[in-house]
Design brief:
The chain has 225 residues and is an alpha/beta fold. The protein is built from nine helices and six strands.
């Protein structure tokens, strides 16, 4: 039973890092911030693309993917950036290979590398144990892949301040709402969660560590879906 680590934007929070809004506010306080950069920061905040969107307008050094087929090197740990990066660019044009905002699937499908990444992600999820850290369950295409993986016997452990509640996307209402497909599907396959930051889990919080370790070694104890 392979072990997969899926990290989202909240992963850095576990180690004391900033969330996107905090990075935005930090950048606003930089000495000598150019007026154009300040305007871009506010513009992309309102668009919902955040400070990463500013990278698209003011990119640093750029990297382009190699041509030809892609592969995973034997005896190396693969690390797939499903939505690209702020300093990657498409090989045949200057557009950045950074998928942000809505309609992510269209952007992924336009890139051979990112399409291949997603294909590998889907395959590796099949029947896997998946530790999910800092992912908000807001990307429909990733949610679909996780739900499909659940049907193959994949098991999940969630590290998030909201714990398992992060998969419940129902809005508060006087009349209880029915569970949405994401929650209905994944709740059968979630084998625990931790609401505490990994920084404390790995720094003496033995109870939380045992929960995580119990999940990661589950295949040796004959875990059944």
């Amino acid at each position: 039973m392979p072990l997969i680590l899926l990290t989202g934007a909240g992963f850095s929070r576990n180690w004391g890092g900033w969330l996107a809004n905090e990075v935005f506010e930090y950048l606003l306080g930089q000495d000598g911030l150019h007026l154009r950069t300040r305007e871009l920061l506010w513009d992309h905040k309102e668009r919902g693309t955040g400070f990463e969107g500013v990278y698209q307008a003011l990119p640093p050094g750029l990297y382009r993917p190699i041509d030809g087929s892609f592969s995973v090197t034997d005896r190396h740990q693969p690390y797939f950036k499903l939505h690209g990066s702020s300093n990657w660019t498409l090989p045949d044009r200057s557009d950045l290979m950074l998928i942000i905002g809505g309609n992510k699937v269209t952007g992924i499908n336009s890139s051979p590398l990112l399409s291949w990444y997603r294909e590998q992600f889907r395959k590796l999820l099949h029947g896997a144990r998946v530790v999910i850290i800092g992912y908000s369950f807001q990307d429909e295409h990733i949610n679909d892949d996780l739900m499909n993986a659940a049907k193959t016997g994949a098991r999940f452990f969630v590290v998030d301040p909201s714990g398992v509640d992060i998969i419940d996307k129902r809005k508060l209402a006087q009349i209880p709402q029915p569970r949405e497909p994401l929650m209905e599907t994944l709740m059968r396959n979630i084998d625990g969660a931790s609401r505490r930051p990994l920084r404390s889990t790995f720094d003496g919080d033995e109870i939380e560590w045992r929960k995580l370790d119990h999940f990661m070694t589950a295949d040796s104890r004959g875990l059944r879906p």
